[in-house]
Amino acid sequence: MGPVAMTLAAFVTIAGGLVAAGPATASAASRASITSVVPSRAKAGATEVITGTGLFKVTRVSIHGAAARFKVLSATKISATVPANATSGLVSVTAGSASTTSPEIVEIVPTVASFTPASSGVGTAVVIRGTGFTSPCSIKFNRTSATCSVSSATNIKTTVPALAATGAILVTTAGTTATTSKFTVSLGLALSSTIGPPSSLVTVNGTGFDPHELVDLYVGETDEALVASNATGDFSRGGFSIPASTQPGTAWISAVGRRSGLAAQDAFTVRTNWPEHGFGPAHRGTNPYENTLDTSNVGGIDRQWSHKTGNAVDSSAAVVRGVVYVGSWDDDVYALNATTGVKLWSYKTGGIVESSPAVVNGVVYVGSGDDNVYALKATTGAKIWSHKTGNAVNSSPTVVNGVVYVSSFDANIYAFRATTGAEIWSYQTGAGNGSSPAVVNGVVYAGSNGDVYAINATTGAKIWTTATGGAIDSSPAVVNGLVYLGAGVDVYALNATTGAEIWSYPTSGAVDSSPAVVNGVVYVGSFDDHLYAINASNGLGLWQFTTGGIVDSSPTVANGVVYVGSFDGNVYAFSLGGALADAAAQRVSAASLRPNLALSACRSPRSCQASRRSLERIWSGTRAPAWQHPQPFVGVRTRPELRR
Asked: Which of 6, 304, 495, 632 has its CA at 20 to 30 Å from residue 441's CA atom?
């Protein structure tokens, strides 16, 4: 009898009989399993030996999810190559629809294959390529720490840090440090901050200059400071001041070596923000950084642009990072380009927006006649949160230390958490009001129907209250010992100590607009449809502009531009026109710069004494400095080129 093909079947006994139940399934013992992976620590490209059972039907091998090339050696052994994109984790094998993993992780040792560029200056982005990269990671250029961002298992992004020195890049990830070949730090200049108002203090870091040489630091064409490079040609100068006279726009910062003629540059954007009603939390109504408009030239300003909204504008503008934020009676909050007036976005609330926005940390805070306080994303206008009060919120929010303070016509002063809108406290004044709270030294000051309240900013407890005898709608500006405010149809300047009148300026309508007093000029609106500029010292009129409606909005003055709203539905911007052009944006030629020989590289008598020997070493035995050559700075070296 020849062989007979038979189908194995499983049988069960039911009531004493045998019943076929179908084909037998593979037992758990016959499924693929992993008992070990050797070695337990390997680099990309290395061979791993996987030992187990049932491996002859394996169709896929992966290391921490990264597919690996493999070869089945037997039912109990597989060899696999660690892929370039593998990171530390469990090894997995798949047979059919079933997968199993190793009992222990395999640690992938990171490697560095290359980096781009091979040389660059401070602040330059560098991409490091290799294998086994995981977060968190750390990087050092020679001995100087740098940022480290893992894009994938094979890519890391970093930036050449200030004072980085030429040498290897050390990459530490997955508990292991890998070292690159030599990275050359070329000539470069980097600033700790690249945007700010005039008078900003920044740290200037330079690399790649000649060792132990004097380096002049310029703002524009003016030599502002002298520093000495160290043994590797690097320097760091903290407390470097952008001069108060530097005009809005781009100011080029240059570093030029006196001996070598090496030069590097970086750009600083001079820009002042007016982030809320009255400029800051104290609502003093002045911008201490304005250096373009003054009593000598304000008479020459004219309309730069106007933007038409759908209704009256008595909200005061906030100006932050080149954007104007303002509300309108058409229920919208607007974001406009500060230079052109072009609308960037608008957000529709449920009521008129008389509130003046406050813009802090990328968020616009504003009240509405729909009884809400809103927090909107400054870049898009998307709502972050809103909080309902009991009545209209015409008050302008004030934001201090992560808290939003605002008044409502439900007779409460509120404090909200700036990030979430959660209510921290509220204080009942007894009368609805649209007063904008001022916050100074931990105290909230707010008015309500003739009464002034002082409230603890943290707890909401009343400190004191006093009656003024009447309501004044214009909020005063206090500058240089004088109080400027509107009352009736006049603008007044009063002695801050005695209250004595210094001068008054008559308009033809009520003055509810709160004055802005900036660089010797009082800017204020009137119900006679005019915006006025008045000499802050003597009360003489300097300029006026007729709009098509009441000017109840309080002017904002920043970066040589006056912004104001009108009941004719427009937001206006006034400037000197062509004179406002960014003349400083043209890059300064390093070859044209001349050093100030009166400058010293040491910043105090003590530091001078400590560095005297170093300075003598700098000058001894060197050739004449570049600025003494017959043709100063001929062939200014840029090894390899000027930064930026």
From this structure: 495
Q: Which two three-digit tokens encode residue 554? A: 């309080």
Instruction: Note down the domain range covering 452.
Output: 298-568
Burial of 23 (0-12, 13-18, 19+ CB in 10 A): exposed
User: Please, which residues bridge with residue 145 across strands?
Assistant: 140
Same structural domain for residues 90 and 161?
Answer: no
Tallying the residues shown for the chain, one arrives at 644
The pLDDT tens digits for 290-334 are 999 999 999 999 999 999 999 999 999 999 999 999 999 999 999
d(CA 518, CA 426): 34
Stated pTM of the model: 0.73
- What are the distances in angstroms from CA 211 to CA 187, 231, 264? 12, 5, 15
Residue located via tokens 């700075």: 633
Q: Are residues 322 and 395 in the same domain?
A: yes
Type of residue found at 640:
P
What is the C-alpha to C-alpha distance for residues 264 and 189, in angstroms, rounded to an integer?
Answer: 6
CATH at residue 162: 2.60.40.10
- The pLDDT tens digits of the residues spanning 198-228 come to 999 999 999 889 999 999 999 999 999 999 9
Q: Which of 276, 325, 296, 239 is nearest to 607 (CA)?
A: 239
The tokens describing 400, both together, are 């201090």
HSE (side-chain half, CA atoms, 13 Å) at 494 = 16
Let me know whether 306 and 266 are in one domain: no
- The residue written with tokens 């100074």 in the block is 440
The tokens for 32 are: 């693929």
How far does CA 199 lie from the centroid of its chain? 19
> Between β-strands 98-108 and 41-42, what pairing exists: parallel, antiparallel or unpaired?
parallel
